[in-house]
Amino acid sequence: MSSPPPTKPPRGVKQGKETSGLLMSVIRTLSASETNEQREKERAKLEKEYKKSDARLDELVAAHAQEIMEVMQKFSSVVSALSVWGQHCDAVVARLGACRGLLRLRRDDLRRLWADARTHHYALQMLTDIERVVVSERSTRESLSAGRVLGAAHTLSAALDTANTTLSHVTALNATRQHLQLKKRELVDVIVRRLSEAVYRDERAPLTRRVSARRRTALLLAELTKSEEVTDAYLQEVTPEFEASLSEEDKTFETTVMISLEALGVLEQLKEATEKFRVQIQHELLEVIDSVSRRIIEEGEVEADAECEEDGEIPDSEGVTESGRPLARLVTSLGEEFRACASRNKRLLQLWRATLQKYRLPDSCLHTEQHYWSAVQQVLQLLLTEYLEIESVTLAAARAGGAAPDAPDLRLADYFARKRPQRRRNKLFKLAGPPAPSPSLARRQAYPLVCRPDPAHLHAVLPALHPLCAHIEPVTGGGECSLRAFITDYVRSGECERLAAAARAAIDLVMRGPGVWRERGSPPAACGKGSGPRHRVIFSCCGGGWRGVCVAARAARRCGACGGADALRATSAALATLATHCRAAHNRLTPSTPQGPPRAQRWLSDDDIVRFLQSLPNWTAATQPDAKISADDLKQAYEREAEILGSSLGDGAVTRKEIVSDINALADLAVLCETMDWLSANIRGLPSMLGGPGGFSKLPDKFLNDISSAAMIFDEISHKCLLFLHLEMRIECFHYLGQEEVPAAEAGARGARRGARGARRSWPTRCSLSTNTRTTSWRRTGSRT
């Protein structure tokens, strides 16, 4: 059509009213007209409008006649095309109906064929899975024989997964499933054993001069202190192919542990393996003891001594006897081995924790370093119980008031199931409340003994146990470790009594010999720090007795923090025994006369005379050589003493029977005085000997009071001897100076006064000579005799 399409009128222009509106208005007007005249007017108006519209229509038809013809032609062609397509559609519908009929005939056949094909495919797949499951056991065995635990774990895990999911309905595979489960448990045991061997039985060099235990530990620490981030990155790449590509030279501690842990993760046995590994800690430590003991026995003492001299691992300390040297070397080597195992165990825990995080498992089931060191302390307690012949290993628990709790996770009874027949032994000590008997406390011979058991071997192993306890305590919480508590309780309950008995026996042996209080000699140079140049002659038996005291004191010093304060009781007991013997010797060596005690002895029983003599400056000069006293004070003291003694003895009443005529008895008493002074000085030097590096930082107050009391006892004996010699010398002077014969009785009084005046005039010089020499003449006389 040539007419343009309608356009939207511009805004503000009103649209013209349509004619239809006009028509409707007319119709309403006609219907509303009331008269015929009005209706006629309206009809005329309508006719006029109709003619106008008819004319307009004719004009439009005339104007668009060509377009109308074209539209009619096109409409005719469309109608004819639609008729043809309708016929085609009818033909297609007829053909589709025929196809549907044919498909209905073949549908059942196709469905049956498809079901048969699916059944055949499923059967083939199931047979393949069954073959894989059956063959997996052999593949696992071959992988294990080649050392590829990760490959074996993958094969076994895939077989178990197939048997439990895809083939779960196949009842004929029940026996195979059981075999695979058994194989899985065996594989887990193999992996756990492999981890234990990596931690506890690493390649160890022999105990020779070439590679020492300290050097091995340093190399191990350098190997294990690698970056943890690098290990975690490697952990993500552990695959069976990586395991197969490793050669023997490439296998290290970390690769072995990572592959083993990855195998446990594949088998979903990480938590169960953690418990198994923790249970076997003590068993593996006992195997370490067995291995080290056998190496020490096989290699002998010659190589051990050479290594000690080179590396200084086992110092030749006091208390290590020749019979206890192998045990000292064993404990020292075990300390190094346990520290090395602790380093490997710490690295194992880091890798194990990373593996648990990789498989999204909590690490609460993982054992800690405290578990390891607790097991170390328990096996060392078992070792000490064996070598020291201790009756019970539960001393630490008995100290707390109860028996030791059972530890089923450690399974000690399993390890000692191969023990030899028990043999009877003398028990060293008994607890007040004996613990319940346990099979693990019986005689154990699972590992060979490097020496004969003896309680005295404790002091051979203490130098190695002290640093080990110091290493354990910060790891286990900072308090006293159970090993130190065990040794402390043993020292308190048994070793203290043994040391005291040994010291008393040694002192009794040297004191009870025939004529021991007649043998004199120089003070031993190594027995104490109290002996000096002023002690020149002592009784030899007292030197031997002091050696016994020194042995007990040094043993207590070696105990140190492990019951050293309790071991000091043995030193106190030795001092008490020595004091008892010295008291008895003083009673025997005190001179006497046929008529009874000499006059000097009788005067010493008077406390007033003793106090007077001890208050004089010359007594201070005799007992305290370092005291500074002027010559005038000494002269006045001598004159005062001469006056008092002259007033008592000036009558000449001292007879020969009241003095000691045997010079050897006085010499023995002088040597006893010197010996007691030497012992007192040594006793006061005990704190310095017990202190110092490696000794007591602070001695107990009770022990200090005990040694102070012991020193006072020996001082008392020394002072009694010195007072007796002091008085005896002066009494003898009065006796010999007063022996002038007076021919007439009237001259007796004058002679007595003259003798007293002469004694007073000569007394200061004689007393000064005697006091300054501190009975030197008696010592020299005794030495000559």
UniProtKB/TrEMBL annotation:
Q: Name one GO cellular component term.
A: synapse
Per its UniProt record, what InterPro entries does this chain match? Sec8/EXOC4
- GO biological process: one example: protein targeting to membrane
Is the keyword Metal-binding in the record? no
Does the record's keyword annotation contain Mitochondrion? no
- Name the UniProt key words of this record, in alphabetical order: Coiled coil, Exocytosis, Protein transport, Transport
> Composition bias, kind Basic residues: at what positions?
751-760
Domain of life from the UniProt record: Eukaryota
Per the record, which residues fall in region Disordered?
A: 1-20, 748-785
List where Low complexity composition bias occurs: 768-785
Q: Which residues form a coiled coil?
A: 32-63
Task of the protein: Component of the exocyst complex involved in the docking of exocytic vesicles with fusion sites on the plasma membrane.
Q: Give the protein family.
A: Belongs to the SEC8 family.
Q: What is this protein called?
A: Exocyst complex component Sec8
**The species this protein was found in:** Trichoplusia ni (Cabbage looper)
